[in-house]
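[09:14] KT: can someone run the structure on this one? pasting the chain below
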Amino acid sequence: MQTTPLISCVIPFYNTEKFLKRCIQSCIDQTYKNLEIILVNDASSDNSMQIAKEFLSYPNISLVDLKQNSGASKARNIAIDFILNKIKFNKIKQNVYEIETNGGGGSTLYSKNHSSGKFFFYLFRF
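[09:31] RB: done, structure tokens below
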């Protein structure tokens, strides 16, 4: 029996309200279905976070909300650590988690469903 590998689409975003919905929807509309989408808000000050939250009804979408702007590289690395289960997090309430950090001021992780396994990365950049 052949299984299809899990594809992880990592989408970091910062103030991209004009493009974010179309980007996320294009990932959802893929014909390949063994797919998870990790959205990383890099402390956006526009409406991007609200747009991203609209997609949390999809079981394969997770959202990490960084409290400080850290740049696209840091946002991608946090998503990769999340996928590889390298991040420790505390459950705050259903589907809302806080990442443990050494310096305090942790980030909030919203997760509807997450499963590890074989994966590939598609990194989207605006």
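[09:33] KT: thanks! The mean pLDDT is 76.
[09:34] RB: yep, looked fine to me
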